[in-house]
Design brief:
- The protein is an alpha+beta fold and 500 residues long.
- It has three domains: 303 residues, no CATH class; 87 residues, no CATH class; 57 residues, Arc Repressor Mutant, subunit A, CATH 1.10.10.
- Strand 5 and strand 6 form a beta hairpin.
- Helix 10 packs antiparallel against helix 11 and helix 13 packs across helix 15.
- 34% of the residues are buried.
């Protein structure tokens, strides 16, 4: 079959209206699995965190993890959902090699949390993403395909299965269809995934590390011709594992589906895979319907009936959520909308707050995180929070600047040393000899030498051209390798030349 030509994005949006839907799976950070006592730590040796229950061996019986139920209720409350008074688990029957029981314990027609929403902002416009359901299930194991070039099953000569992940508590958050996003559809999808990740992280129930698979998005896209009343057939791009890829996968599917429809073809309801290297999706398998899974109530688990008192207790324990925090810090820090957006996009809100709590003013904390440290994070290709420096260390460096022990140039060298693993800020200053030269006697000696070497400039200053002092200050800074107190050096230069 000939691959249809992709339609340019702008043309596709002129002719078709996209409708989105996002299903997000989040692994909870509990110490044990959903229905057994096995550990959940990431990166353990394959098949070392398993037992008869999570392997589905005959005679084993599951027991519900109370901490996991508490975690999902917190997520539901933060998403403005209603928490039902009674629900139960179901068996979702299907065979994958990484599904040891050949069924998954999940929830079907009776989810725990329903009818919520999450608001996101894109280019000044607010979009309300309606949440259909938040339900609880267990994760699958992980297949490793060996011998191919891409790590996928195509081209591999054999596969291995690690069941450590099987049975980890997994929360699935399903949106209702998201229409009326127009050409902002990819950005809305990314903004939703970003806001959801920040919200869950703020609750402390998951680390939501997309690179480790603890947050994964299935992105649904369909197109309908402009002016039509019926939505088109959707595709589901599975397990998208970065915010950037969420955005790119939506854009790719819009261009692909528009090309198919323009060529007179039809969209097949299927799962698809997103490829980071090409920015395109490829076909996976035809999409099952609910009846294909033969759901029925899980016979080995009693229904759940969270008391209203417990739900309200959990509601009262929720921390300040990201949207409320942003509104607060914008006012407290005096940020414009654009400045706030930059801070949020850099993942710097919590870092700046912690630096302020360690004794630094908001302006200085933001300056260091958003300029010097953000630049270094970009150079290293890492997240700001992953840099090997703490808010307390940033606050200590700024304290030395405020005390006149460092200037900004020297401070940047201290940051360099701390990030290189040379120790605390004080240790770096001592080892590199970075303190500002502020002793008047030492400065006067250096200044006299600079004046002697720059007689013409000195004469201009004596004649009243005080602005020329900047050249001598620069010479003093060069002579001291940037360690002089520039302000004090200028005062002494003018004093020595009788121009003060």
């Amino acid at each position: 079959m000939t691959t249809p030509t992709l339609m340019p994005y702008d043309e596709a949006l002129a002719r078709f209206e996209p409708v989105l839907g996002i299903e997000t799976h989040i692994e909870l950070g509990t110490y044990s699995k959903m229905f057994c006592g096995c550990a959940t730590s990431f990166g353990a040796e394959p098949n070392t965190q398993v037992c008869p229950v999570c392997l589905g061996l005959p005679g084993s019986l599951p027991v519900t993890n109370h901490a996991a139920i508490e975690g999902i209720i917190k997520i539901g409350l933060a998403l403005n959902c209603s928490i039902v008074e009674w629900c139960r688990f179901a068996r979702k029957n299907y065979f994958y090699p990484d599904m040891p029981k050949d069924y998954q314990i999940s929830q079907y027609d009776e989810p725990l949390c329903v009818d919520g929403y999450l608001e996101v902002e894109v280019d000044g416009a607010v979009y309300r993403v309606e949440i259909e359901r938040v339900h609880m299930e267990e994760d699958t194991g992980k297949s490793l395909h060996v011998g191919g070039a891409t790590g996928r099953i195509q081209g591999a000569d054999h596969s291995l299965v690690d069941y450590n992940r099987a049975g980890i508590p997994l929360v699935e958050i399903v949106t209702k269809p998201i229409p009326a996003t127009g050409d902002k559809a990819p950005l809305v999808a990314r903004a939703y995934a970003t806001e959801l990740r920040e919200l869950v992280r703020s609750l402390g129930v998951s680390d939501v590390r997309m690179e480790e698979g603890s947050m994964r998005c299935d992105v649904n896209v369909s197109l309908m011709p402009r002016g039509a009343s019926e939505w088109g057939t959707r595709t589901e791009t599975k397990n998208v594992n970065s915010l950037r890829s969420v955005e790119r996968s939506v854009r790719s599917e819009i261009e692909r589906q528009a090309g198919v429809l323009d060529a007179g073809g039809r969209i097949v309801q299927e799962t698809r895979h997103f490829h980071e290297d090409t920015g395109r999706t490829t076909s996976g398998r035809s999409k099952e319907e609910a009846q294909d899974y033969r759901y029925f109530p899980e016979p080995d688990l009693v229904p759940m009936a969270p008391s209203r008192e417990w739900v309200e207790e959990l509601r009262g324990s929720l921390p300040e959520l990201p949207a409320a925090r942003r509104r607060r810090v914008q006012g407290e820090w005096g940020l414009s909308d654009l400045e706030l957006r930059d801070v949020v996009n850099a993942g710097a809100v919590e870092l700046i707050e912690a630096t302020i709590a360690a004794g630094t003013d908001a302006g200085s904390a933001r300056k260091w995180w958003m300029n010097e440290l953000s630049r270094r994070a970009t150079e290293q290709g890492t997240e700001l929070a992953e840099l090997p420096i703490t808010p307390e260390q940033v606050a200590r460096i700024q304290a030395m600047v405020q005390a006149g022990e460092l200037n900004d140039k020297l401070a940047r060298q201290v940051f360099e040393g701390v990030l290189a693993g040379e120790g605390t800020p004080d240790a770096v200053v001592a080892a590199r000899g970075l303190k500002v030269v502020s002793d008047d006697g030492e400065l006067v000696s250096i200044i006299d030498g600079v004046i002697a070497d720059n007689a013409a400039v000195a004469d201009k200053i004596r004649a009243g051209k005080v602005a020329a002092a900047g050249a001598l200050v620069g010479a003093v800074m060069k002579a001291t390798r940037g360690q002089a107190d520039a302000g004090r050096a200028r005062e002494l230069i003018l004093e020595r030349l009788g121009a003060s």
